[in-house]
Amino acid sequence: MNSVAMRPALWVLVLTLASGGREKTMAAEPDAIHLDPVRLVSDSPEPKTAVLPAGSGEQETPETQPAAAGWPPGLMMDGLDAIGLGKPMQELGLRTYGYVEAGMTFELSGPGDKHTGLPLRSFDSRRPQNLRLNQLTLFLDRPVDTSKSFDAGGTFTFLYGTDARLTHSLGLLDKQNHEAQPDILQGYGELWFKTGEGGQGLDVIFGKWFTPVGCEVTVPSSNFLYSHGYLFSFAQPVAHTGLKLTYYFDPVNYAYFGVVRGWDVFDDNNDGATFMGGFQLSSKQLMGANPRSQLAVNVIAGPEQTGEGWPGNRVLLDVVWIWRWTEKLTQHINADYGFQDDVPGALGDGDVPGVRDSAWYGLGYWLNYAFNDYLSATGRAEWFTDNHGVRTGYRGTFFEATTGLSITPFPNDRVLRNLIIRPEIRADWSANDAPFAGNCQMTAAFDVIYKF
What we know:
Layout: H1 6-18, H2 75-82, H3 86-92, E1 95-109, E2 132-142, E3 150-161, H4 164-167, E4 181-194, E5 201-210, H5 230-235, E6 239-250, E7 253-260, E8 274-282, E9 286-287, E10 290-291, E11 293-303, E12 313-324, E13 329-347, E14 353-370, E15 375-386, E16 396-407, E17 419-430, E18 441-451
Antiparallel strand pairs: 1-2, 1-18, 2-3, 3-4, 4-5, 5-6, 6-7, 7-8, 8-11, 9-10, 11-12, 12-13, 13-14, 14-15, 15-16, 16-17, 17-18
């Protein structure tokens, strides 16, 4: 599926939509950066996800409709107001905002070091015992207004930091190394067609956008913990380039279908298309302002290997379930099963590489308790199996357990309320000792996030 001819037209259309329309829209939450409908709704007051740590909530797990409630302007918009540019942007329905994240991981036991990195870890795997600028991310968007019969918008998301080596899509800023570098996380246009007064409507996005799959996401403040688990790191994609149509039956129930170029691919590496679809079901019973139970199901299928035709068909089934025990106590469960045909380099008996059909699957559990505006605590446990080492580089079954805090020291301060500090302790081990050499890998880590 050759993309050379499509790229110029795609970016022109994305940028045109991002600036289209002169009426002021219903501003979505700046926390709701990802206006992708395949995410769960929010627990009040945070946008779009279940009882996140105070002050968090950008890219979320299954969400409501594209537009969300208003959000106090951040420091970037305040600065534009000060030089007279804020009002013109508001008249166009445009917003700009961002965040910075820096973190550090300390290895307490295990085979890794600051030169070899930490086995089976993603964003924090390189250079433990070193402070990292994980992400400096900027957004420019025009959220669609779902109260209108029709509206157009778009989002552009730019990242600079050490995480870019793992978020980048093939064919876009391909020069990668292990140091801080740039990446374009998202660049998409959006169309909204209202079909009813009860929240019904069709949402269309086209361009590059975050995957709807999984519980954990790329934007750090939308996760409970600093480190990412196995499912996010090895079982799921980060982003897609293509078209997605989502129909809302009401603000919390929808179904979607998409055609994309593959997993983390901007310039397709084969001639085939990847198809994806899913739905979200929300209970009528509420816990606070949100549905007590929500279930999201996602399926992705298509070729992922380089070559002519449709080589290496890959299928992923992803299920996310949220249950709100109380307004403060919430659990997330994420299950994945993936399969791919004819994977080169798949490990067999004796770890001998060859071309094999391969499967991977796992289960993750998160339990979060929000004590107050200052503090929340989270525990995470995961099991992940990689039958032929095609996702992790190791054959076997792996386990991890993590506990951490999310601290918002100044929730009532106009400037400092968007400061978040997240310490954690994590243990990793495996059923067959690899890659931990018979030991349990123990780490302590923290990150600091500021949204502006």
